[in-house]
Sequence to fold (110 residues):
Amino acid sequence: EQLVETGGELVEPGGSLRLSCRVSGFTVSITDMNWARQVPGKGLDWVASIYSSGDTYTADFVKGRFAVSRDNDKNEIYLHMSALKPEDTALYYCRVGTQRGRGTQVTVSS
Fold:
């Protein structure tokens, strides 16, 4: 079972990114999955979820800017990020329950 996040990079405020999570050992179409983020010295914050039903939810602080989706054929999930703010700078993780990957760093700065 493995989760591998990619797609994080340095981006200017107002920019967009798409994070990917490649999943092995789980089938994304029948697994509830989440995105979370963490900044140094702080706890892990839930960002978004996509359930096996296909329903999606996002945290209030990213609502309208972030969206979560999945590709059942590729067995991947994605976090679509737009209108990025400096406070979105964090290490982003893909999670199944308490299991997560190594994360991908998103830095929003001019």
Notes: The mean pLDDT is 96. The radius of gyration is 13 Å. The first strand starts at residue 2 and ends at 6.
